[in-house]
Amino acid sequence: MAENIFKYRNEHGSFKSRNDIKKVSRLGGKAFEQGAAFLRIKQPKNPPDDSAVHPESYKIVEKMAKDKSVSVSELIGNKDLLQNIDLKAYCTETVGLLTLEDIVKELEKPGLDIREAAKMFAFDENIKTITDLHTGQLLPGIVNNITNFGCFVDIGIKESGLIHVSNLSDRFVKDVNEHVHLNEQILVKVLEVDVPRKRIQLKLEN
Fold it and tell me: Is residue 122 part of a domain?
């Protein structure tokens, strides 16, 4: 389906609206319903097309703009105006307060490409087994388990390394969760490697 979208764009030029996506071969109503909010149309005819607001909620956005006596394009990106909207007035049996809050958040940051904020990560390609480790190395890792005595870190090999609570900070650590979070990308320093016992001691680097 992605190939069909790519092919259609190359043959017909840039999409001018989300609805144009429906013209793509094999992209039916269900696929459009599920994927529309993930698509961004740059310089669209309809401003919400360049946001994460789903087309099903466009009428809500239009009503908000009308109630504020502005156009939709004037409403989008106007943080002060958006924060002064009484969301409860737009609640219905099918649209709750949380959905409305999400809509406003999206309207506050039009055109945001969340991929730009993505954090690139890669393990050290030189570390393939525990025998490649030595004291003093600085390595990227991902926290894969948190305990009362510290946390375990995936550094790209079979064995996870341990950051003991005493090596999380130079200060007293009351709660491990205040220093690391599950699946967090961190930088660690190798303190000790016990190959026979397959144990790796690490320290959190700030």
Answer: no
Q: Is the pLDDT of residue 112 over 80?
A: no
CATH number at residue 35: 1.10.150.310
User: Is the pLDDT reported for residue 113 higher than 70?
Assistant: no
Would you say residue 107 lies in a domain? yes
Type and span of the H or E element at 64:
helix 58-67
Inter-CA distances, 136 with 189, 190, 193, 201, Å: 6, 5, 10, 11
Q: Are residues 7 and 109 in the same domain?
A: yes
Range of the domain at 146: 130-205
pLDDT tens-digit series, residues 49-80: 988 888 989 999 999 999 999 999 889 888 88
Instruction: Provide the b/e sequence for 177-187 (b: ≥16 CB within 10 Å).
Output: eebbeeeeebe
Residue 120 banded pLDDT, cuts 50, 70, 90: confident
Q: Note the pTM of the prediction, 2 decimals.
A: 0.52
H or E element in which residue 176 lies: none
Contact 121, 140 (CB under 8 A): yes
Q: Among candidates 184, 132, 130, which has minimal Cα distance to 161?
A: 130
In the chain, how many domains are there?
2
